[in-house]
């Protein structure tokens, strides 16, 4: 009887442990947090590492080992991941490995692209937060590494800044197309320089996006940013060029004699157009971020993004995401200057009134 109870107890324990393992191993989100807390899976994996892999690790030179990443996303997410991986690989003296299925090759020259699909004997590392710098990647363990994450911080590639710009050189036909497109809309309007305004709205206003903390920047911010540049470049004739995914809205609210709205083109050409302008005003998201980075002039970004207190806000370290030279702006500070003006008028009035009272 006691024997049966014992066996039953062990059986229940075994089922419990197996269920727990399956639970952990089948959920990516949970795995990320679990691994991040303990690096447990890597340790366990290493215990069961094949003899061949162990041998490779002990004999193969560090420089011939690879680093790659696993994730999915759109053009600008890929740009972040690629640039960051380039920076991480350089810092760790590793080779970069990217799958052939990346969307970057359809836009950029990518001179040093090293296509390889899977790494043998690879260890997985998971980033902490998608829009924050994770210093653990500065010093990778001595093995092939697969990084899981978005790697969306300029800090991963600041040391190879000029290489990143060279890497993301648009293919010639795309450059030409963007150039002639831009010229078509700007050549008839006299100007000294062109400032791109990237207005992203469509996917930013989906319920699912709003829930996470994405948002579209308000019109007042864009007008405020324009005011900033117009004032700053007082002696120059500035022409604003709007690149957007919401042509109708921009046409309705942003049209003016110093602003042209470009019809929405394809993602690559539109990005190339932004990169050809002198300065940039961006709204929200990573696409405008990359347009501004490639343009390399002055950049104004929306200060109130991500939505304060949201999940995205928690995932974002603003100082890691926005380069320190970029200028944060909010909605107009007109209100503030108005209140200052009112206060001042009141003050003058009180003085005047007092004078009157005294003279009476
Ligand atoms: C890393 O992966 C590459 C490509 O699969 C392989 O040739 C190499 O031997 C691996 N190195 C180690 C130490 O696992
Ligand atoms: C644009 O319009 C404003 C008034 O709305 C005017 O002051 C300005 O001179 C105009 N600029 C050009 C280039 O025509
Ligand atoms: C603006 O950009 C164009 C093209 O890159 C360049 O030729 C021009 O000198 C720039 N103008 C200013 C004022 O920076
Ligand atoms: C920006 O403006 C919004 C709305 O006016 C305000 O709630 C927010 O606190 C401001 N954010 C910053 C960082 O100044």
TrEMBL record:
One Pfam family recorded for the sequence: Glyco_transf_11
InterPro entries (UniProt xref): Glyco_trans_11
Primary site of residence: Golgi
EC number: 2.4.1.-
CDD domains assigned: Fut1_Fut2_like
Gene Ontology biological-process entries: carbohydrate metabolic process
A GO MF label: galactoside 2-alpha-L-fucosyltransferase activity
EC category: transferase
Keyword Aminoacyl-tRNA synthetase attached: no
Membrane topology: Single-pass type II membrane protein
Keywords linked to the UniProt accession: Glycoprotein, Glycosyltransferase, Golgi apparatus, Membrane, Signal-anchor, Transferase, Transmembrane, Transmembrane helix
GO cellular component, one term: Golgi cisterna membrane
Protein location: Golgi apparatus, Golgi stack membrane
Pathway the protein takes part in: Protein modification; protein glycosylation
Transmembrane region(s): 7-25
Family: Belongs to the glycosyltransferase 11 family.
Protein name (record): L-Fucosyltransferase
Species for this entry: Pinctada imbricata (Atlantic pearl-oyster)
